Amino acid sequence: MDIVMKHNILSLFQLCDSNFPTGAFSHSYGLESYIQENKVHNQETFSEWLQVYLNEQLIYSDGLACHLVYQALEEDNLQKVWKLDRLLTVQNLPRETREGTQRMGERMLNLVESLYDAPIFSTYRNRIGTKQSFGHPAIVFTMIAQYINVSKAETTLFYLYSVVSSLVQNAVRAIPLGQTAGQKIIHQIQGDLATATLKIEQLDEEDFGIVSPGLEMSQMMHERINIRIFMS
Amino acid sequence: MEDWTGALNLEVEDRKGKTVAKKVYFQGAFKVMRPIYHDDSGHACYYLLNPGGGYLDGDRYQMKLSLLEKAKLTLTTQSATKVYKTPNNFAYQEAEISLQPGSYLEYLPDPLIAYQNAKYKQKNIIRMDKTATFLYADIVTPGWSPDGERFSYQTVQILNEVYVDNELVVYDHIKLNPASQNMNGLGFMEGFSHLGSMLVVGKQTNSSLLDQLYSAIDMNSDEYKLGLSILSVPGLTIRVLANTTQVIEKLFSEIHRVISQEWFNSEPSFLRKY
Questions:
Q1: Are B6 and B29 in contact (CB under 8 A)?
Q2: Fewest CB within 10 angstroms: A70, A126, B3, B92, which?
Q3: Which of A41, A217, A220 should we substitute to test contact with B (largest number of B Cβ atoms within 10 Å)?
Q4: Does the CB of A91 have a partner CB in chain B at under 8 Å?
Q5: Topology (CATH) of A24-224
Q6: What digits encode the pLDDT tens for the residues B140-178?
């Protein structure tokens, strides 16, 4: 293995690290509504929720966006990137998850701008500043990955991993689950992340933004739950 | 020209305070009746008919609707849209809606009933001026099946795209896929069988409207689950899960009433259907 080449992947590990301060620890994407209804209360029920969230929402939004943004960047088609930024935002109908991801995207962008010297980050930030774009973590993540020459499939896979691992951390705190249970879930879902990545490669733009009603409902209902530790 | 099972082209304009048709064209299995005026406001109401009685394998329907400046229109159907089994190709319906400055459209079709082995896809594309107002509702219900299965249709896919002043502002994409999903599982229909969606886009939307809606609706009912949220532009989206059409219709008409009262100081008309 070429250790000099492979050290690029460490840069992606850095973004997937739950210590990377994007604010993901304060968003549950509707999980908290299920916890309050006592529908998610242990390792088994949380795993069920995580599978549904991954396969019925995340792959059609963030996951498919990673794939399409990477392609657009390879073709130097920035208009397409900005179009996907808008699509990602306007397909997200629940206000809390929409505004939450926007804030995460902006925060991540500011961070990576101090780490990488690529003009695309300041272009994106300027567009957000002038309200031409919204900001989304999946887009920032893909921009970095493509910039440091990580492959398209790995980019999608790593992004899915980063979302899932933050969600597991959040579930460990909120349900609560033991740390070992949390690690078991992260271990068990790795094969599903690979399957999801393959599925994303088979999707096309017509599939963008599909969401299952229950998940979306839980994200809308979160606006009115009484006690909350998450912002979405 | 594409081959449509049914096509409708309707353009309405405001003529001295009364909304009238400027252009009406329909062919095949799509028809509109003469407009009805429920009161003296000039607001027109059109009923859409499907003389074929239901959507079959590979059927394709197209509707083009245009509201010129200040036109006010309610478009509804005469009865539910029934989609029967589609062994080869899904049934498809698309609507292209254009709303010019100051116009107001209520598009309130009756429920969609998807029967055993039905595949259906629907796309609504709305292009509106920022001073226009759009109010839309749909209900997806499973049809009766001989073996009593709750979700016997294969897929129902509904996409709503709304553009305000040429910018995409809503991309609402639902796909129910009982053929491959566990509809009774967590995250899908949450134990319910009917799905209602409502979309309101209009510059008058503000947070006090949202509070009024929350106070008008019982959020702790066992009969349904309701979620509502404001859009990234002035407007809101509502989803309801329930077990009967009546429960959803009752909620939607209450929401419609609050909005009409708040924005136009009027009551919505009762849409009589015989």
A1: yes
A2: B3
A3: A217
A4: yes
A5: Urease accessory protein UreF (1.10.4190)
A6: 999 998 888 889 999 999 999 999 999 999 999 999 999
